[in-house]
C-alpha cells in the first residue's frame, strides 16, 4: 500500500508541476503578439533617413539701376484738359487766381480793352492773335507783354502802362478766364492762326488773308 501511495503522490506532484509550467508559459497568441510588437518597436527605433531638399534659386534683389519706371506721359495727351460742352461753360469753370503772372495779365488786358462785352469766341480770337504774334519766330516780339506794348499796335496802350482796370468786375474776370483758356490751348478758335484784326467799323484795305469775322472784329493772317 505504501508503494502505491508513493506512486500516486509522485504522479500528483508531476501533474501539478506540469500544470504550473503550462500556466506560466506564454500562449501562442501572446508569442505572436510579442513578436509583432518587438518588430514594430524595432522599426520605430530605427532613424528615418533624412531627405535632401535642394534649395530654391535666389531671386536677385531689384536695385535702383534696374527699377521699373513709369513710361513718360505723352506730350499730346489731353487727359488733363477740362471737358466742357461750350466755351461759355469752359469760362465758368476757370479759377480766378489770387495773383496773376505778368504774361497772363498782359494777355487778359488785351482781351479786356479790345473786346470786353463781345461774344466769347471774339474775345478768344483777340487772345489768339496776341499769342500767335509772340510765337511767330521773330516777326513780332517774343513775349505776350512785348507784343501788347509794341509801339503803334494796340490803341489802348498808354506808354508802358494799361489804363485803369476794374479788377472786381465781371468783364475782367471773363478776360482772365479767356486768357487762361488761350494760353492752355483749351478751346479751338476759328481764328487760331490769325495775326491781325481790326474793328468792323473801319476798313483799312489790308492785302491779307481774311480768316473770320467774330464779334466786332475781322481777323486776318
From TrEMBL:
Positions of the Cell wall hydrolase SleB domain: 117-220
Keywords carried by this UniProt record: Hydrolase, Signal
Signal peptide positions on this chain: 1-29
Entry keyword Lipoprotein: no
Magnesium recorded as keyword: no
Lineage top rank: taxon: Bacteria
Pfam families, per the entry: Hydrolase_2 (PF07486)
GO molecular function, one term: hydrolase activity
Name of the protein in question: Cell wall hydrolase
Organism: Sphingomonas horti
Lineage of source species: Bacteria, Pseudomonadati, Pseudomonadota, Alphaproteobacteria, Sphingomonadales
Amino acid at each position: 500500500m505504501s508503494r502505491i501511495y508513493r506512486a500516486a503522490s509522485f504522479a500528483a506532484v508531476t501533474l501539478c508541476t506540469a500544470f504550473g509550467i503550462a500556466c506560466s508559459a506564454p500562449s501562442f497568441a501572446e508569442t505572436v503578439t510579442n513578436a509583432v510588437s518587438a518588430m514594430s518597436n524595432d522599426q520605430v527605433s530605427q532613424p528615418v533617413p533624412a531627405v535632401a531638399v535642394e534649395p530654391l534659386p535666389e531671386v536677385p534683389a531689384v536695385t535702383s539701376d534696374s527699377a521699373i519706371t513709369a513710361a513718360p506721359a505723352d506730350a499730346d495727351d489731353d487727359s488733363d484738359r477740362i471737358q466742357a460742352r461750350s466755351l461759355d461753360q469752359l469760362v465758368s469753370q476757370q479759377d480766378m487766381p489770387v495773383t496773376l503772372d505778368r504774361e497772363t495779365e498782359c494777355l487778359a488786358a488785351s482781351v479786356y480793352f479790345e473786346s470786353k462785352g463781345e461774344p466769347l469766341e471774339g474775345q478768344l480770337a483777340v487772345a489768339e492773335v496776341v499769342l500767335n504774334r509772340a510765337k511767330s519766330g521773330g516777326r513780332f516780339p517774343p513775349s505776350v507783354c512785348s507784343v501788347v506794348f509794341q509801339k503803334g499796335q494796340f490803341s489802348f496802350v498808354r506808354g508802358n502802362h494799361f489804363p485803369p482796370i476794374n479788377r472786381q468786375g465781371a468783364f475782367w474776370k471773363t478776360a482772365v478766364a479767356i486768357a487762361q483758356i488761350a494760353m492752355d490751348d483749351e478751346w479751338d478758335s476759328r481764328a487760331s492762326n490769325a495775326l491781325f484784326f481790326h474793328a468792323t467799323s473801319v476798313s483799312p484795305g489790308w492785302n491779307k488773308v481774311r480768316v473770320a469775322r467774330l464779334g466786332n472784329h475781322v481777323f486776318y493772317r
